[in-house]
Amino acid sequence: MTHKQTWATVSTVIYVAFILAVVFTGFLNPSQIGLEWTIFWVVVAAGLCYYFYFKNVSYREVVYYAKKLGYHKDDLAALVPKLKETQDVPDPDHPHFFSPFAGIPLAVTNRITEKLEPLAKEQQIPPYR
């Protein structure tokens, strides 16, 4: 199973667990809060699970390419010159299992990936899967 499939499975399990929890607890009971609000919260939960999937895949992709290319946290920070004080870059030497939710935004991982992919292609590193 590829990394992307693994994260898709984890996100799906979280979503199903959410749906089961709200069904069995009656938390999003349409007769109490209305059908519109029930649909709204189910869609919001799906969106958050997709964000969780995408953020973790992006984070893992950066860590994968950085490790293959021999980059460290300082090297990755140099690839993103205008980091805000509240932003950080992934640390390939000490990766988290889950992507840090607030510290490493998608904009940073996307910029780093855009710069690492061509370098990886030049060195015949297989694409992240």
Largest sheet: none
End-to-end Cα distance, whole Å, is 9 Å
The helix content, as a percent range, equals 55-70%
Structural class designation: mainly alpha
Which blocks of ≥5 consecutive residues have pLDDT under 50?
none
Mean pLDDT: 89
Rough outline: elongated
The arrangement of helices and strands along the chain is HHHHH
Quickly count the helices: 5
Strand content: under 5%
Number of strands: 0
Report the radius of gyration as a whole number of Å. Answer: 18 Å
Number of domains: 1
Q: Key features?
A:
129 residues, 5 helices, transmembrane, membrane, transmembrane helix
Description:
The protein is mainly α and 129 residues long. The protein has one domain (3-122). It is 67% helix and 0% strand. It is built from five helices and no strands. Helix 1 runs antiparallel to helix 3 (35-69) and helix 3 packs parallel to helix 5. The longest helix has 35 residues, at 35-69. The N and C termini lie close together (9 Å). The model has no long low-confidence stretch (mean pLDDT 89).
